[in-house]
Design a protein that fits this description.
Shape: elongated
Largest sheet: none
Radius of gyration: 26 Å
Length: 430
């Protein structure tokens, strides 16, 4: 017998609350739009129209690869696109504008105070730029952490938000560097592989497109750890993001100051420092992603035992391959709307598992029960479509062995409600 449906979520917020959210959203969009106009005008002024267009065309190239990598990392519990678009836009426009203005002002001030322009440039690159740029990028992570707290639940969310922010920042910065390089080539008549543009492209787009994301991801990890801390650990929630930000600044400073270590300082820092750290953080991000799947496998059986989920669903939901099979089967048999419902079911079930996991550590917040009931209600609404698809996927991918049934007998129904169908529901036998 299937369990009764969970109670519906609480009524929507009052109109005044929605008006307040609309005002905040409008203010953010206006701020980003103004920042975009100003920063692009400044970059065009420095590079010239032709340099700006060349820099823009070349800077776009790594963006799809980086954003696809962070989206892949976020597949287990996909975050809202609007958060990632905000993070990218903040990095590309607001953070870049703050950086170009603050760096220029500070460097000029130091040069005037010390009468040493070369020393001011070096100090600006190794001290001022890392502090200003990482702080400006960290602001986006902080805003998502504070105002989209429900979507920011752990390390993966911190890494993805920081990665999108840094990708946007690097995009705008690359336009400036490549545009200026192109201008130098026009003045000197250089072209081809010997040009400054080719060298700049190789260093920034081939060797180190991950540099800015790598720095800012350390800040994201700090916020992600803070998100997993228990409610009473206020000091940890403050210290961990600050520690992550400090490490991001330090790593950025080492990278910018690599030329001070001699003729081959850049290559030594790149090979002995940047690449190993990149490998370590990549491993940590992938391991954390797999940890979310392990949490799904460990937490959802409780709901299956209570009849809220199908018996095979935790097995299917803890495998990305099985999830894909379930969506594919739903799409073939019932169309794209069914596949979308299965995808939503997978995301909701993952959120439920992670919520319960946080609650066991005291980090779920006082609204745990209301949030749990809300997620269960949304799952129940999609269960008639998603349940059979996930059951099929569990068997098809070997997560759950096929039952050995006598040939003369019909398939034995499983112990959860599939709408009156057999163990594979309306999708038929495999």
């Amino acid at each position: 017998m299937s369990s009764p449906p969970p109670r519906a979520p609480a009524p929507a917020a009052a109109p005044g609350v929605w008006r307040g959210k609309a005002v905040r959203a409008g203010a953010v969009i206006t701020l980003l739009a103004l920042s975009a106009l100003v920063i692009l005008a400044l970059v065009r002024e420095q590079t010239g129209t032709q340099g700006f267009l060349v820099g823009l065309g070349l800077s776009v190239l790594p963006v799809p690869l980086l954003t696809a990598a962070f989206r892949w990392l976020d597949q287990v519990e996909p975050g809202p696109w609007k958060n990632q678009i905000f993070a990218f836009a903040w990095g590309a426009f607001a953070a870049a504008l703050v950086a170009i203005l603050a760096n220029s002002f500070a460097t000029r001030w130091i040069a005037m105070a010390t009468a040493d322009p070369a020393g001011a440039d070096h100090l600006g690159a190794t001290v001022i730029a890392p502090v200003v740029e990482e702080s400006a990028k960290a602001a986006a992570v902080l805003l998502v952490f504070l105002f989209r707290r429900r979507d920011f639940t752990g390390i993966v969310d911190g890494v993805v938000t920081a990665g999108f922010t840094a990708t946007g920042f690097a995009f705008t910065e690359n336009i400036l560097y490549l545009g200026n390089a192109f201008g130098e080539d026009v003045e000197s008549g250089s072209s081809g592989l010997a040009s400054v543009t080719a060298a700049t492209f190789f260093v920034r787009m081939v060797m180190s497109p991950f540099a800015h994301p790598l720095f800012t991801v350390l800040t994201g990890i700090g916020f992600g750890l803070a998100a997993t801390a228990a409610e009473g650990r206020r000091l940890r929630r403050i210290v961990l993001p600050l520690l992550g930000l400090a490490l991001a600044m330090l790593m950025h400073a080492i990278w910018n100051g690599s030329s001070a270590f001699g003729e081959y300082g850049f290559y030594v820092v790149y090979a002995a420092f940047m690449v190993p750290v990149f490998g370590l953080l990549t491993w940590l991000a992938v391991w954390t992603r797999q940890g979310e799947l392990r949490t799904v496998a460990g937490e959802l059986p409780v709901y299956a035992a209570a009849g809220r989920l199908g018996a095979a669903e935790p097995l299917a939901l803890s495998s990305m391959r099985a999830r894909s099979v379930a969506r594919g089967m739903a799409a073939r048999m019932r169309g794209p709307e069914a596949a979308r419902a299965v995808g939503e079911y997978e995301a909701l079930a993952t959120s439920l598992a992670l919520l319960r996991h946080r609650a066991q550590r005291g980090a779920a917040g006082p609204d745990f029960t209301a949030r749990e009931q809300e997620l269960l209600h949304h799952l129940w609404q999609r269960r008639a479509i998603a349940g059979p698809a996930l059951a099929y996927a569990a068997h098809a991918t070997g997560r759950l062995p096929r039952p050995l049934l006598p040939p003369q007998r019909p398939p034995t129904p499983v112990a959860y409600d599939t709408g009156g169908h057999g163990p594979y529901g309306p999708y038929g036998q495999p």
